[in-house]
């Protein structure tokens, strides 16, 4: 299962999984982009879903279990950049909306996946959370997004620990500047810590899909807790 599968990294990852022979449930808010990702494949299941709504997420997992009987892999990818500005400039409703999608959405999907993986036979499965390099360091004016991505790291560690008795592995992929519509502005000009605006290098998101496949193909007695993939020359290691 891939959330946020209608565009960007989610679409690239879902397509790579389908190409690799996986049966993939495609989750996202709008049906039309999900259908484009599915491209008519019988191994794709389109399920329009609001990841921030518990009933919607429960319906997503019920549809998957009805079609295929089990859940072996969840890629928790859905997310939004949210509001831009310093803490005093962020509206409470924009903060709440960002948390609902990026953090609560990931929790709700992981909760349903964990429930299914614990109960099914053979027991177990894998959850891969999409963090961000903002799970390590922020960009200026990104308090809501950065806070949710730091929180994803705690969620990943907790799931990985709690999942051990049930053969549920959990890891996180932290991505920096994959070239998607969501990050298109970065290659033109991104605000830096010193206040300047400069273009930053990007990289082909197909490499993200390769990394997810690497993690997904491991046996459940092996795990990649954290994997960071970035554009080589982006200002991450020297950010600030």
Q: What order do the helices and strands come in, and which of them pair?
A:
Blueprint lengths: L1 E2 L4 H12 L4 E5 L2 H8 L5 E5 L5 H15 L4 E4 L15 H28 L5 E6 L12 H20 L5 E9 L13 E2 L5 E2 L7 H11 L9 E5 L10
Parallel strand pairs: 1-2, 2-3, 4-5, 5-6, 6-9
Antiparallel strand pairs: 7-8
Description of the structure:
The protein is built from 6 helices and 9 strands. The chain is an alpha/beta fold and 240 residues long. Helix 3 packs parallel to helix 4 (92-119). It is globular and about 55 Å long. The termini are far apart.
In short, what is this structure?
α1 (8-19) packs across α6 and α4 (92-119) runs parallel beside α5. The chain has 240 residues and is of the alpha/beta class. It is built from six helices and nine strands, in the order βαβαβαβαβαβββαβ.
Distance from first to last alpha carbon: 36 Å
What's the total number of strands? 9
Number of DSSP helices?
6
- What's the Cα radius of gyration? 17 Å
Mean pLDDT: 95
Task: Write down the overall geometry.
Answer: globular
Into which percentage range does the β-strand content fall? 15-25%
Reported for the largest beta sheet, the result is: 4 strands, parallel
Pfam family, one: adh_short
Domain Ketoreductase: 1-168
Protein name: SDR family oxidoreductase
Keywords: Oxidoreductase
